[in-house]
Amino acid sequence: MSVPRSQSSFLPGIAAAAGAVAVAFGVHSMVPSVPAMTAAVVLGVLCANIPIASGAVSGVLKPGLGVASKKFMRAGIVLLGLKVSLMDIAGLGWVAVVAIAALVAASFAATYAICRALKLPGDQPLLISSGFSICGASAIGAMAAARNSREQDTVVPIALVTLCGTLAIAVLPVLGAMANLPATVFGYWVGASVHDVGQVVATAQTAGTAALTAAVVIKLARVLTLAPITALAGLHYRRHSSAAAEGAVRPPLVPLFIIGFITLVLVRTFIGLPAELMEVASVIQDVLLAAALFALGAGIRVRQLLTSGKAFAAAMASWALIGAGGLGVAYLIAG
Questions:
Q1: Per-residue pLDDT reduced to its tens digit, 138-184
Q2: CA 195 to each of CA 157, 189, 282: distance values in angstroms, whole numbers, following the listed order
Q3: Using alpha carbons only, how large is the chain's radius of gyration in Å?
Q4: With the CA atoms of 68, 70, 72 and 78 taken in that order, what torsion angle do they form, in degrees rounded to the nearest 10?
Q5: What angle separates helix 151-178 from helix 275-297, to the nearest 10 degrees?
Q6: How far is CA 125 from CA 165, 226, 247, 322, 323, in A?
Q7: Sequence-distant (≥ 6) Cβ neighbours of residue 331 within 8 angstroms
Q8: What residues contact residue 27 under an 8 Å CB cut-off, 6+ apart?
Q9: CA nearest 222: which of 311, 92, 65, 111?
């Protein structure tokens, strides 16, 4: 049976994303310190900027890559909910939970203020703030969907949050060793300040199991703030965008995939799933997000990124602020 033309046009791009995911996980297996998500973004950037491949990226592969960057990203965010347990987060204690929420709010507000002061265009201030303060590229994808952001507004934030998260893998262990941080404090610091979950794991594992365990719990507490912040951004857009005009179709108050994310958080917390099913869901989530990040990376033009000096300055300032604030929160939680 032949595949309809409207569907077959997506297949080359989706196949390319699948191939890139296989390569990215292969790189990660050979070099565990390189997260598969980071490798996927880099592969996308390479494909977009190497002449022999860039034509295909902007041509025959474009429809399928568009599906991967949007649909796969949202599906991956939904499955991310299965990694978040409210009980684990509550186990940190109310002081830690309040400190993490305050850190996310403060870093979001400070980053947004910096971006606005530097007059970054479009939704870039909001997207950079989301990525740096919450959970990297996943947060940027969620916020872009809630705000109906232009695709070109997501390119620079994705590139910058990936760059800074990758730098953290190399820089934070060195700083932690220089400061002679205890393993648990180092883990709390990594979880509070590094962006993507995979980057958190890659950074914290350098200090051992105790640091890794501490980092993941703190990081997932930050991930949990994705739902309310995205909902508030969607509400603001709904009220103030031109789509709110009488008779126009308005965007949903809370995107469907965020509702799915919340639902799976509740499932993980109150129902639980067999370990085998959780493992399969985790693999599927990683594959979906890696494919989405490859597709997003394929939209990054290095020349464009190099001319984004103000955005780069904003990212560096935000990274430093969140790193300093995260260290303070780490010491507070450690008591």
A1: 889 888 888 888 877 888 898 888 888 888 888 999 999 999 999 99
A2: 12, 12, 18
A3: 19
A4: 170
A5: 120
A6: 18, 16, 30, 16, 19
A7: 185
A8: 34, 36, 39
A9: 92
Coil, strand or helix: which one is 246? coil
Please calculate the CA angle 84-87-89 and round it to the nearest 5 degrees: 65
Q: Tokens at residue 265, please?
A: 């958080």
Distance CA 64, CA 179 (A): 47
| 215 DSSP assignment | H
CB 47 within 8 A of CB 53: yes
Q: What global pTM score does this model have? A: 0.80
Q: Which of 7, 17, 12 is nearest to 76 (CA)?
A: 17
Q: The tokens of 30 are what?
A: 């050979």
The separation between CA 212 and the C-alpha centre of its own chain, rounded to angstroms, equals 19
